[in-house]
Write a structure and sequence with these properties.
alpha+beta, CBS-domain, Beta-Lactamase, five-stranded antiparallel sheet, 23 helices
């Protein structure tokens, strides 16, 4: 049986036994058991209740709700006094199988949350709207205490509503989505089918060979096989697919397609061309969306002479004639609730209730779109949300009639104002933080909020940053970030780690992040708190280098302690100088009292140290580095001062005149060594160190 009015209560659907006969389990039920129950009861879902198994066992464990008592056509009594806190579906079951999750865990851990509830007093149209807006296929119907009394599905709605709501002029081709048709061959494995279902987020696969339709495989089929622990890797699709397949053509009227699904209790039809080759799939969801789209037209046609239905509504309703003579609209009918709120307003202008500016805005939009929702509307001390529908009139008296429903949102509006004040206070706190705070949508990754620190450190204005994709500012792999997002949303995990952000000028900013889930603008979002660690990394690098130097120094001291002769000690010293990257090392041992070089130790590379040209051709041209202490060592400024000399750049810094400016030596340092005292006359050695690199030796090295 079907009913002609979607304004009738949801409880009318209780006359369909499937609404009341729903499956429920406790929160601690193993997931594997929940899947087995779904399969054995031929259900595509199971409700998860806020209780444990002992609570349900006290009143027949894992029972479907067969014994719900219907007191009248609009009221039912629940069997269990528990609330639904999750819903576990076939989609969840096949996803867990694909991801190889532990099915012994509690079903609540994997269930979809929160549950979308609907009261028994809601209209069928409100149920349809909730399904469409939330992209879901079922609603939990609850009583005044939020205890579940039924589950409303798309199939039940299609079976309950009047098929006349689907325009006869509309065919399947008008609602068929132009998506790529995904199919598999009969000889592919069920494991491959499972992968396609999960990755493409679809609920059914058609099976074709050539262009011929061979069968269909659905989530329900896979779920039943999972409950039997079947090895999907070795099982072929042809052994488990369903055939024959119910089909329709592009020119099939939508009303006929809907009746066919209701008649055979199926959720979809395969659309075929004139050669019976599959070209698409039409689902119950497509039918539901078509109902919502044409609702205003349907309501006006069926309720034009049934105002007493509106008369029993608790919200005020007015009907306004949009006439040629009165552009401001005349009230031609009002329900009983409106009389209590506005008094008798029949024959008055609508602008006696709404201000002229507001009505003009609403009216202009109504003329264009035929349907308007508008708030806030201030009437006296109350605040309203109004829903308006414009219906063209076929009489000469009026251009059309406008039905206006007023919903009192005074308390809600005031609460939202108070919430905005609180949010402003929180925003001020966040803006005072030195850490960056960013909130973004986990679906489209758009940045919805950022604090002042984020704008300043990344170099964006508020207008530039908000609305950007989060991946526009992060250098790390998108796949890695998406993996963490998945963990945060599905497992409610907190993720901590290091990332690299990209500033507006292209510079990279190393950061430490802490990311978690947050409820923002009535939806789940990702909250990231990021701290600039560029200074810390510099300190870390210095500490690493310092540790490296200390380790080398320790090795040097250890090796030096093993030397038995002075020459061995100098060999060890030269070895560690080479490890530091020094290109030229010359050690002069001196006799200070005689002002003479006793001996020297030289480590050199050819392109730095060459013998004086005078030794070969009697010319001093092109001499690069000469033994600076070949005579009168006391003239050396290092020996005279007793302090090291470091020259970072020989081409710009003044140093020793013995170094030729054109030499490949770019930087050098000379160090005096004292033995037996601190007086200049006690300097017993000079070490000359040279490098091909500029700024190798500087004051810090000294």
């Amino acid at each position: 049986m079907s009913y002609t009015n979607t304004y009738l209560p949801v409880s009318l659907a209780f006359r369909d036994n499937d609404t009341l006969d729903f499956l429920a389990v406790s929160a601690d039920t193993p997931t594997k058991e929940a899947i087995r129950l779904m399969a054995s009861n031929n259900k595509d879902y199971v409700l998860v209740l806020d209780c444990n198994r002992n609570d349900l066992q006290a009143s027949n464990d894992y029972q479907t709700y067969h014994d719900l008592q219907v007191y009248d056509s609009f009221s039912v009594r629940p069997k269990y006094k528990y609330k639904a806190i999750g819903i576990f579906s076939e989609s969840d079951a096949i996803r867990l199988k694909y991801e190889n999750k532990d099915l012994n865990k509690d079903v609540y851990f994997y269930a979809s949350k929160p549950v979308v509830n609907i009261k028994t007093s809601y209209s069928l149209f409100e149920a349809i709207s909730l399904m469409i807006e939330n992209n879901i296929s079922k609603l939990v119907v609850v009583d005044e205490h939020d205890h579940p009394v039924g589950v409303l599905t798309q199939r039940i709605i299609i079976a309950t509503i009047d098929q006349e709501m689907l325009k006869k002029s509309k065919n399947v081709k008008d609602v068929l989505k132009q998506n790529h048709l995904i199919s598999l061959s009969p000889n592919q494995t069920l494991a491959e089918a499972l992968r396609i279902l999960v990755e493409h987020k679809i609920r059914a696969l058609i099976v074709i060979e050539g262009n011929k339709l061979m069968g269909i495989l659905t989530q329900k089929d896979i779920t039943k096989l999972i409950s039997r622990d079947l090895n999907l890797e070795n099982a072929l699709i042809k052994d488990y697919m369903k055939y024959p397949v119910f089909t329709c053509k592009l020119d099939t009227p939508l009303i006929e397609a809907s009746k066919l699904m209701a008649q055979h209790n199926i959720r979809r039809l395969v659309v075929v061309d004139d050669n019976e080759s599959p070209i698409g799939i039409i689902t119950q969801g497509d039918v539901i969306r078509n109902i919502e789209e044409k609702y205003e037209t349907y309501v006006e046609r069926n309720l034009r002479s049934a105002r007493m239905m509106l008369d029993i509504m608790q919200d005020p309703v007015l009907e306004v004639a949009d006439t040629n003579a009165h552009t401001q609209g005349i009230v031609i009918w009002q329900n009983e609730s409106s009389k209590k709120v506005f008094g008798g307003v029949l024959g008055k202008k609508i602008t006696d209730i709404l201000d002229t500016y507001t009505w003009d805005s609403v009216h202009k939009e109504l003329i264009k779109t035929k349907s308007v929702n508008y708030e806030p509307i201030f009437v006296g001390d109350n605040i309203y949300h109004i829903s308006c529908v414009y219906v063209q009139d076929d009489t000469a008296i009026a251009n059309g009639r406008i039905k206006i429903l007023f919903r009192d949102i005074t308390d809600l509006y005031k609460s939202e104002l108070e919430l905005k004040k609180i949010n402003k206070q929180y925003q001020n706190i966040l803006n005072a933080m030195e850490d960056m705070v960013i909130i973004y949508d986990p679906e489209d990754y758009k940045i919805k909020f950022a604090n002042r620190a984020a704008f300043e450190k990344l170099g964006y204005s508020e207008e530039e940053l908000l609305g950007k994709s989060f991946f526009d500012i992060v250098l790390n792999s998108q796949n890695v970030i998406k993996h963490f997002i998945d963990r945060i949303i599905k497992e409610n995990k907190k993720v901590i780690g290091r990332r690299v952000y990209i500033k507006s000028n292209g510079e990279l900013l190393p950061i430490h992040v802490s990311a978690t889930q947050v409820y923002f603008d009535n939806e789940n979002h990702i909250l990231v708190v990021a701290r600039d660690i560029s200074k810390e990394l510099i300190i870390e690098e210095k500490l690493k280098n310092t540790n490296k130097d200390l380790n080398m120094f320790y090795s040097f001291i250890t090796d030096l302690s093993k030397a038995h002769k002075e020459d061995e000690a100098y060999d060890i010293l030269v070895h560690y100088f080479k490890r530091l990257g020094i290109d030229y090392i010359h050690i002069y041992r001196l006799n200070p009292s005689l002002n003479k070089i006793v001996s020297s130790y030289l480590l050199k590379v050819k392109n730095i140290y060459e013998p004086a040209m005078s030794d070969i051709h009697g010319s001093d041209e092109h001499v690069w580095v000469r033994d600076c202490l070949d005579e009168n060592p006391s003239l050396c400024k290092v020996i005279k001062s007793g302090t090291p000399l470091a020259v970072a750049n020989v081409s710009t810094d003044y140093g020793c005149p013995k170094i030729n400016v054109g030499a490949p030596v770019k930087s050098y340092m000379c160090i005096p060594i004292f033995v037996g005292g601190v007086y200049i006359t006690n300097a017993t050695a000079i070490i000359s160190l040279m490098s091909l690199k500029e700024n190798f030796f500087d004051e810090d090295t000294k």
